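Please fill in the sequence for the structure shown.

STRUCTURE ENCODING:
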């Protein structure tokens, strides 16, 4: 069982889909509530620059790998292993295929993508400004 986590992912053809129950608001919560509870803040703490001016902390080494490998072989695992829904595959403009989209503003800085990405193509770096997460009681 030892070894790199990203090497443990099985191709989608070898797996059964998981049907998760809807959040109940008591023990399980919707994505937006869960992200808000982390206290992550994407504002610059040392400057007055808006969050959109921050250097990207989530990048791809090769822009084609997620669709060619991760979507094709593993059915887009990023949408499952990212607890904040940062990664998704959206239809292209012509509707004939999908493209990989990163919503970095939702990132809770857990680094799961850097560990679990089977292609090891996602580069996670600590975001500028130290904006969280800020879990209470820790």
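FILLED IN BY: designer on duty
SEQUENCE:
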């Amino acid at each position: 069982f030892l070894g790199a986590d990203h090497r443990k992912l099985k191709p989608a053809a070898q797996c059964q889909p998981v049907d998760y129950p809807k959040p109940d608001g008591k023990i399980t919560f919707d994505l937006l509530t869960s992200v808000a509870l982390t206290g992550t803040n994407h504002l610059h703490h040392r400057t007055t620059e808006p969050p959109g001016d921050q250097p990207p902390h989530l990048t791809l080494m090769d822009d084609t790998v997620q669709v060619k490998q991760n979507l094709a072989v593993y059915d887009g695992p990023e949408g499952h292993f990212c607890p904040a829904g940062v990664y998704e595959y959206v239809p292209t403009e012509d509707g004939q295929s999908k493209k990989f989209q990163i919503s970095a503003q939702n990132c809770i800085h857990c680094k799961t993508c850097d560990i679990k990405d089977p292609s090891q193509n996602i580069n996670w770096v600590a975001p500028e400004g130290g904006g969280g997460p800020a879990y209470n009681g820790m």
